[in-house]
Structures are given as C-alpha cells and as structure tokens.
C-alpha cells in the first residue's frame, strides 16, 4: 500500500514537471492583466466583441493611433445612440470644436449612463462623457471647456503616449486590437495623466474657448462645479467619486483660470445656456441674448 502511494505521488511530480517543460518550450503566456472594461458592463450596456478586426494580432510597433481609436469605438459602439438628442448635440459640438485639428481624427463621443460628472479621452479621438456631467454644466461654454480639455489630451498625444508606455511596462510585444482597446480603456477610465499633462490640456481647453469666443470664465466655473460635485472636499472622496474624478486640484485650477479670464480683452463672448438647455449647439443656432460683455 505504501509503495502504491509513493508511486502515485512520484507520478504526480513527474506529470507536473512534464507539463511545465512543455509550457516553457511552447512559450505559453499567462492571461493578460484584467482591465476595467467590466466597469462599462456594470453600467448597463453590453460590450461588442464579435468582430474579426478586434481579434487580429498586431505588434506594438505597428499600433496606429487611428486604428486603435477605431477599435475602441467599435468595441463600445453600444454606447452610441444616433437618435438620442444628447448624442446628436455632443457630436455636432465636438465636430465643430475639433475641426481642423492637426491629427485629422474623426472625433467620436460616447455617453455613459452614470450620475458621476466626468469626461475622459481615448487614443484616436474617442471621448466619453457621463450623463452626470451633462447635468452639472450650466452652459455650452462650460461644456466646451471640458470637451476642449479632453480634445487637448488627444491632440497633444497624451493618450497614445500613455498607451505605449503601459504596453512597454507590461512587456507586451503583440496582442489583438480588442486587447489593446481594453488596455487603453482600463488605463484612461482612472487617473492616468501627470500634472504637466493636465496643465497642458487645461491650457488647450482655455485656448479653445478663446478661439471660439466662448465666455473665458467658463473654465474656472467648470472646475469649481466639479469640486462642489465631490461633496465634502477633494481629500475625502468616496471610492466611487475618486474612481470617476480624474481631475485633481480643482480649487487651484478654478482660481488660475478665473484670474486669466479677468485679463482678457473687453468684448462680447458667447455663453450658450439656452443652447445647452435645447441641445442645439451655437454652430446650428446662435442666440443674441447669449452674448455677454466682459
């Protein structure tokens, strides 16, 4: 009996060693690290995965930003409803705000069904905006300030640089487009930009307001609203608030851009409260009463 048990035990050890040997010989790899893509599923919409283009293997050095953006947009296309007034409004606004940008991407906007106010950008000109953000802002100028900030992250290559850095840190040489898309979403749904990148995107958004003659005070007001939306203060966010609030130091940023707005030349600037309320951008219809003197 003892001899049988010993033989069984040795057989198990030999089998384990043999499996390990073949795994190394075949260069078997572990499953890629989990991403935050499940967060999207928890918000109530499915992720599209049945598409051959998303399963195609691609080396990291061949990863093109536009192609990655297309794969992210395809993966989350269930978030887009072309008949939704909010979707139509955001698309028109983003199309005009991004017109003539250096990267020549077709910017796409997806709406997340959550009350937490936030927006974030993905490589290839893919933007996510929450319903909570649309409820928080009080004018089209404020919404343009946030969209301009996110467009800035794309145009200044913050998004693609972040993805490439993450892939290199994980030592990923090749993967499918679907896996690359999940990694990108998992990276940018949480805080991922450094302070300098946030400052650069802030400045880009502010310059966009100036270029389009929106109310320059909108940037400072928006940061103040975001701070107020966190409740008791930036240092005591709940896990949910901290998860979605990807823009830190809001009080400082509000003060900075309010002071900058005070130095702008006197003139007439567009507010767009009525446009936001009616979900019709100023590029479709401008209201005379929405111009304010500064």
From TrEMBL:
Segments forming domain Peptidase M48: 93-259
Signal peptide span: 1-28
Superkingdom to which the source organism belongs: Bacteria
A Pfam family the protein falls into: Peptidase_M48
UniProt remark on cofactor binding: Binds 1 zinc ion per subunit.
Alphabetized UniProt keyword annotations: Hydrolase, Metal-binding, Metalloprotease, Protease, Signal, Zinc
Database matches in InterPro entries: Mito/Outer_Membr_Metalloprot (IPR051156), Peptidase_M48 (IPR001915)
CDD domains tied to this protein: M48C_Oma1-like
Cofactors (names): Zn(2+)
Gene3D superfamilies linked to this entry: Metalloproteases ('zincins'), catalytic domain
Biological processes, Gene Ontology terms: proteolysis involved in protein catabolic process
One annotated GO molecular function: metal ion binding
UniProt key word ATP-binding: no
GO cellular component: membrane
Family from the record: Belongs to the peptidase M48 family.
UniProt-recorded name of the protein: Peptidase M48
Natural source organism: Leptospira semungkisensis
Lineage of producing organism: Bacteria, Pseudomonadati, Spirochaetota, Spirochaetia, Leptospirales
């Amino acid at each position: 009996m003892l001899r049988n048990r010993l033989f069984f035990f040795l057989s198990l050890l030999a089998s384990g060693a043999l499996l390990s040997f073949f795994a190394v010989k075949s260069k078997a790899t572990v499953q890629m690290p989990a991403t935050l893509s499940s967060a999207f599923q928890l918000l109530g919409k499915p992720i599209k995965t049945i598409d051959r283009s998303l399963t195609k293997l691609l080396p990291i050095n061949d990863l093109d930003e536009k192609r990655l953006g297309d794969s992210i947009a395809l993966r989350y296309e269930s978030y887009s409803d072309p008949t939704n007034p909010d979707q139509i409004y955001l698309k028109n606004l983003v199309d005009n705000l991004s017109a003539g940008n250096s990267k020549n991407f077709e910017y796409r906007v997806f709406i997340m069904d959550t009350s937490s106010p936030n927006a974030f950008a993905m490589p290839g000109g893919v933007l996510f905006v929450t319903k909570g953000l649309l409820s928080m802002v009080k004018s089209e100028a404020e919404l343009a300030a946030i969209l301009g900030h996110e467009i800035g992250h794309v145009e200044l290559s913050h998004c693609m640089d972040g993805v490439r850095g993450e892939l290199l840190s994980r030592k990923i040489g090749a993967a499918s487009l679907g896996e690359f898309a999940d990694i990108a979403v998992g990276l940018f749904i949480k805080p991922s930009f450094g302070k300098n990148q946030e400052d650069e995107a802030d400045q880009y958004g502010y310059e966009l307001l100036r270029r389009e003659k929106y109310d320059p005070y909108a940037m400072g007001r928006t940061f103040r609203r975001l701070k107020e939306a966190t409740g008791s203060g930036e240092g005591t966010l709940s896990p949910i608030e901290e998860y979605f609030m990807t823009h830190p130091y809001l009080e400082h940023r509000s003060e900075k851009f309010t002071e900058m707005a005070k130095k702008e030349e006197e003139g007439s600037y567009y507010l767009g409260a009525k446009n936001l309320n009616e979900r019709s951008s100023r590029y479709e219809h401008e209201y005379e009463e929405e111009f304010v003197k500064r």
